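Subject: Sanity check before I submit

Could someone independently write out the structure tokens for this chain? I want to compare against mine line by line before I put it in a report. The sequence has 195 residues.
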Amino acid sequence: MKVTKSEIVISAVKPEQYPGGGLPEIALAGRSNVGKSSFINTMINRKNLARTSSKPGKTQTLNFYLINDILHFVDVPGYGFAKVSKTEREAWGRMIETYLTLREELKAVVQIVDLRHAPSQDDVMMYHFLKHYDIPVIVIATKADKIPKGKWDKHAKVVRQTLSIKQGDELILFSSETKKGKPEAWFAIEQAINR
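---
Independent answer below. Compare away.
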């Protein structure tokens, strides 16, 4: 998809704040600091529409980005080591769960993991949560440029095995630096919204 227009429409915390209009939605989930904002910016050819931060856990709302007036990317708060109180984390958890399980417009979740490391316990839990609710998943293993090409298969295999990726679920190696995987990611997203 050639993106010519993208804007943030709303940061929501509860269903009544979600945008209307019934456009298909693709949610982006991943650990804090895994590179979700960089992924969004790469996909939409913008430097900093999604704010990147060196401080994990900055995204505390569901951020809806309107792309080409035909779909929304929804950036959900990162899970994992954000330095926030337990109460706050539980509130985020409920907010994310409500969105993922009840939102009819949601067509798929792009789950972002770091290709350099085996997926964390949180990554595994998220993948199984999505499978449990029968939500289509596209796994994006980012930071591929940080690993020699000859080791990509080995690292991809670790991601597949750790998450127990089901047959039919995509695993795409991606790099915001080199744009590797961008056409494949758009292809998977387009297939998901046209299902």
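---
OP: Matches mine. For the report I'm noting this point. Helices lie at 36-43, 86-102, 121-132, 152-163, 182-193.
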